Amino acid sequence: MGILKETDILISDANVLIDFIKAGAEKILKEVGKLHKIYVPTPIYHEVRQLTSAKMEDIGLIEYEPSIELLYQASLKIGQCSPQDALCLLICDNMGWCCLTNDKNLRGQCTKKDVKTVWGLQLLLYLKDKGIINKD
């Protein structure tokens, strides 16, 4: 079984976005975005300083405006998660989406709620398996 199913929709947390942008590897996100919708919650979009609306559009990321109720729930303590990470968890749990994160605390909370998670670097393996990139 592959890392992602064709029907998977992703929510990205801040650290994955920052890692790919700082590495100049937005192309990876762009290629995954051609196969899967990748949403970025509005508070995370505003948190990632390197992310502009033009860059979001170029990469193919979609801004996700959470409800006031979700924002409130995320403000409550969920393990060691920041409110932004808690928001990713809640969206994924409510929508049945996959959480794209490198954060161990968030991954732990996702596991407790049976929310599928993907490491940022797993996207490289996924694209290699799809024949989109090679191992070089």
Shape: globular
Strand order of the largest sheet: 3-2-1-4-5
SS-based class: alpha/beta
- Assess the beta-strand content as a share of residues: 5-15%
Radius of gyration from the CA trace?
A: 14 Å
Secondary-structure element series: EHHEHHEHHEHEH
Per DSSP, the total helix count is: 8
Task: Calculate the mean pLDDT score and round it.
Answer: 94
What is the number of E strands?
Answer: 5
Largest sheet: 5 strands, parallel
Q: What helical percentage do the residues reach?
A: 40-55%
Unreliable stretches: none
Question: Assembly state here?
Answer: single chain
Distance between the termini: 23 Å
Question: In a nutshell, what does this entry contain?
Answer:
Helix content is 51%, strand content 12%. It is α/β, with parallel strands linked by helices and 136 residues long. The longest helix has 13 residues, at 83-95.
Give your account of this protein's structure.
Helix 5 crosses helix 6. It is globular and about 45 Å long. It is of the alpha/beta class. The protein contains 8 helices and 5 strands, in the order βααβααβααβαβα. 51% of the residues lie in helices and 12% in strands. The protein has a 5-stranded parallel beta sheet, sandwiched between helices. Helix 7 (104-112) links the parallel strand 4 and strand 5. The chain has helices spanning 14-22, 26-35, 42-47, 53-59, 68-75, 83-95, 104-112, 122-129, and strands spanning 10-12, 38-41, 61-64, 98-100, 117-118.
